[in-house]
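Follow-up to my earlier ticket, as requested here are the two runs.
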Amino acid sequence: MTDGKILVHNHKGGTGKTMVSVHLAHHLARSAGPGGKPICVWDADTQGNAMSWISEHQWDGRESFRYTEDGQAPIVATIDPEVALGQDRLVVDTPPTGTFIEEFLSVARLTEEDVLLCPVDGRNAVSGALKVAEEVAPTGCRMIMVHNRADPKKSHARTEIEALEEIAGHEDIGAELFRLAIPSNPDYMRRAEEQGIPVWDLSYASRTHTCKALRTFCSWVGNGAPPDDNPPAGGLGGNQKPISKSLNQRLWN
């Protein structure tokens, strides 16, 4: 990722926007290295969940703070829009409201250099993704949907994926779909949030399908989300595929 804005947004709550925002920020910071530009996370949701996660649950209500760790670029976490919009590299954890894009566009621009990531979890979130796609289409901003917290055992999982594929295939909308679902693993994700770390820092979670898929998604976005690498072909964790072939078939077939 070069300089620019990444908004993580869906009109529906509970789709894992904070999870995606925090993990993406950590990935970008580590990829940039200790001499890299800071990664700013704007927690635009009044719940302040991203601020709590990044601060290792030590957030004391300050509008902004700087998180540093050896071997990576700093992360600037803020609830102040002026601080956020003054940063070169910005990840926005948005509130689940239907007015946020309109409000954001009143103070900042979205261009072809920016990206909107839309996590989708549930049927209502599919409708929310469609509304978001329609809102951002005039800006030229690239929109990418990801089926987040997917459970292939649920009967409606395939229906949701088919709906997202239909949205992505509509030329007038211009939305894309990351063709690798991020499986649900609430236990490990809850532990990671409680410890204030990304899930891949839990040693016993690093080889789970959830961790591999999430790391693959963050890496793909960080590399500019190249269409030719969607679905990803590279390997993680010593395997040649980010998730097993059998799981991929269950998620996508």
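Run two:
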Amino acid sequence: TNAIGADMIVVTGDFIDGSVAMRRADVAPLAQLHAPDGVLAIPGNHEYYFDYTDWMRHLKELGFHMLLNRHTVISRGGAELVIAGVTDRSAPRHGQAGPNLAAALTDSPEGAPIVLLDHQPGDARAAATQGIALQLSGHTHGGMILGLDRLVARGNNGFVSGRYDVNGMTLYVSNGTGLWPGFALRLGIPPEITCFSLRAG
């Protein structure tokens, strides 16, 4: 979960493990999230493992604006900011549309800075070539255990936790807020909710 200033909340996926019926009560407090510019989100790989269509419907009901290979434009005093989101790279294995950055940016205002939500950080170098200013990712849980983070980095093109400069694009990989039931442990890798303050360059 990331907050951009106090004006917007974004979630970069992996809300759940389990069906809507199993996890409805667990995610119910998310309906209390509100921000002037909206609560934006993308799916992580785990949403595809459990009734993806049901989850996309339920997350919308909770107030999330899901950016599935789409973007939205935030305007401030004549200036514009594009928030784009792509689906997870695991989607095609589950019969769903895979990430498509070109589609996500179709008809976006020319010259406006772009913030990209991409659950997995591994494609950051490709995103940097498309003029993205800031990419927000998760997926890695920060490596979960000091030392194990080096192995997690190998599976994510070297990106595992925190801020990276990727050919002029800023990438931030969040440690995430919770635990994965398949490996429900953190040692030396704290959970986080990250607040970003964006300013014109």
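The only thing I checked on run two: The chain has a mean pLDDT of 91. Let me know what else you need.
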